[in-house]
């Protein structure tokens, strides 16, 4: 049987199903983007093209404050989660796959296996018992905790696929462990570290359940603020905010892909 016979494009209906899938996936996003330029305040009634809702969104002080909180928390959580994930991956990727090491890996990945509402309630009770009242501190600690496994997975995968010959060569040349890590290991696993950091950043920016339960005065994140707007009714301003978030996500994803491709070319 030839390779062409296994081409999925030759199966009856494959093209149609693919088109329907992508239409179902991206049509709602296209509708949100299209109606963000609606001149009418009623979302479902098109009266003309306008960019006034983007200006209104950017001039909204409450929105900008929520965005500032989200960015601040996301940066802190990204740095903390990536650092913890990197240290955990360095240890577990070189440890024997048994006993305490398997348990340690399960603990690192535990937030992925638990429903987020369970994690949110747990950290809420913990912070209450510890007497932590500052909303920004609670959000930063909680986001760092649940973002760590998202940063851990790509870093661990990168370390597992990396040959240790370069590290051993550096050690043979009497390089101290820290120097060998900084000059050899870290540049080799940089794409994985960057991917983990970007994933942690996006997960932090996107989080709603934990942020909604832990937010207090002055620590309202962007998803929580958007949810408060939805409760008052959908407007083109909300569509404009969503479109700006989509654009920011595309920029981050594109940057990650470009940097990863450059790193792969350098390795090749």
Give a brief rundown of this model:
75% of the residues lie in helices and 0% in strands. It is built from 12 helices and no strands.
Question: Can you describe this structure?
Answer:
The protein is mostly helical and 268 residues long. The protein folds into two domains: 3-35, no CATH class; 60-267, Orthogonal Bundle (MetI-like fold), CATH 1.10.3720. Helix content is 75%, strand content 0%. It contains twelve helices and no strands. The radius of gyration is 23 Å and the shape is globular. The two termini are 34 Å apart. 28% of the residues are buried. The model has no long low-confidence stretch (mean pLDDT 82).
| Integer average pLDDT | 82
The level 1 CATH classification of the largest domain is Mainly Alpha
Oligomer: single chain
Which outline best applies? globular
Total of domains: 2
**What's the end-to-end separation, in Å?**
34 Å
Low-confidence stretches: none
CATH architecture of the largest domain: Orthogonal Bundle
Q: Which percent bin holds the helix content? A: over 70%
What Rg is obtained from the alpha carbons, in whole angstroms?
A: 23 Å
The CATH superfamily label of the largest domain reads MetI-like
Number of strands: 0
Main sheet specs: none
Spell the H/E element sequence: HHHHHHHHHHHH
